Protein: CP4-like integrase
Amino acid sequence: MSPTDIKAKNAKPLEKEYRLTDGFGMFLRVTPKGSKYWQMAYRFEGKQKLFSIGVYPAVSLSDARQRRDEARRLLAQGIDPNAKKQAEVKELKAKRDKTRTFAMVAKAWFATKTKWSKDYGDSVWKRLETYVFPATGDKDVAELDTGDLLVPVKRVEALGYLEVAMRIQQYITAILRHAVQQKLIRHNPAYDMEGAVQKPQTHIQLCIIHMVRNSLKYVSWKDYKAVTSGLKASLSDPGRRGGADGAGCVRGRMGR
Structure:
């Protein structure tokens, strides 16, 4: 039976699957559950194959015939329509995946930083290009784990650039937070990098160390133990580093 739009619309499911043929190998396949599919039977290089054209009614009879005729033109040129369709799907997926790479997500994140000065923005982007993108730029953000993210951070840390390493860790965390917000990933693996980078010594810490070194030349053993204990407490307590002792240290080094 040759299908028309009315026949295709009124085709009822039966106990067994059946076909409404249209010509040139195309037919409407009707399943027992009532689903309807346009397909085309053809031979290529001696093998019998099926080409899926579309689902009815999303694809009308007229559209199905156009797609069938296009498939027949490909066959006349020695091209398998299924192979061409698969290649197109693969190309489309590749284009979509490219927008999910770390570098592309970083670019989208960077575009939101409109309040940054040009110099600061250039500095951030230069660091990403130099230290981060070579290791993670081409990877899909959904496939990155904490170990992958630590690679560029640890490389910078190994060079002794502790402040830069911490900044890069912050950039990566912010970029993947943007990926979460855009629903590209569900979890930000960068959060688990917390504590992985050695913190650089602050100016106050270096000042205290310098002052104590000079002072220890002139103190007794008893005073030495008291000073070193105080130094440990000072370096481990951020509140004390930022207090009056720290300010005095800075003044001392400045000769005031």
Remarks:
- The chain has a mean pLDDT of 84.
- The beta strands are 18-23, 26-30, 36-44, 47-55.
- The radius of gyration is 34 Å.
